Amino acid sequence: MVGEKRWKDAREFYTKGIAALKKHPEIQVQNDGDDGEGVEKEKDGEEEEKEKEKERKIEEACYVNRALCNLEMSTTSSPFPPFPLPTPFSTTILSKKLIPHPENYRSTLHDTSHTLTLSPTNTKAHYRSTLALLALNKYTLALDTCDRGLALTSPTLTSTTKQSAEHTAFQTLKTRILSAKCSADEQDRKRTTAENREKREELTLNTALSARGLRMRWTGKEPDLEDARIHLEPNPLDPGSEIHFPLLVLYPLHQQSDFLKSVAETTFFGDVLETVLGEGEGLPWDTVNEYTVD
After folding, report:
1. In sequence order, which residues have a C-beta less than 8 Å from that of residue 36 and are 6 or more positions away?
2. How far, in Å, are 27, 126, 181, 186, 205 from residue 193 at the CA level?
3. pTM as predicted
4. Is residue 250 helix, strand or coil?
5. 65 CB contacts (<8 Å, ≥6 apart)?
6. Averaged pLDDT, 211-216
């Protein structure tokens, strides 16, 4: 099912496998064939250890493969280059775009955590856990897990081709994590800078309004002014700059209005009228030429 990319069916298969292992009896009940009564017979110590180790490996495989299913069910197509490693260590998640499915990523972390409890050196679990942490923007934890994977696959004189490929995969993933972390840090820095500047501009504007004895009134519902706003020009951080504000000119007898997005505090009303009435052109709805600058 994994080979056919039937991730949902495969996840259900591994879930049933895990449930079956948890219900596996530790002591077998057999019939001795003489008196018909069941007697408990303990396994031979060596055979019991082999059986436990076999079950541990099966449980480990179920958890780490279910983690892969959860990862693949959390992605969608994207232009990222395909990941070079062969299955089952690699996952096509690097050739896909990560989209918000936090429940699946948390399930991945749950399964990889169980896998690493059973086998702390499982490189697949480290790799898939790192991918889930990256998708959840937990960059510090992702780097820590990735570094553990790098340590486990560190090249030695006896390294196999598979180990070398795994190490390369972790290096590629770490580069991607560092890049994502750098971008996120830069976005946070820009957002913090913009928020701080906005607060400073607002404080400066309030200072300028108070210095001029101007008071603001707020309505229960903010009007739709598009990008029009009260502000200072040319320097919004200088309370000595001119105050610019939106201006609404009403013609109540004709139920008409004109809206100017920005008018300086030093502008004369005659200049406003020249702007809205035009140079002798008048208003398009004023057929009798009732409104003029004069």
Report:
1. none
2. 66, 36, 18, 10, 18
3. 0.66
4. strand
5. 2, 10, 14, 88
6. 89
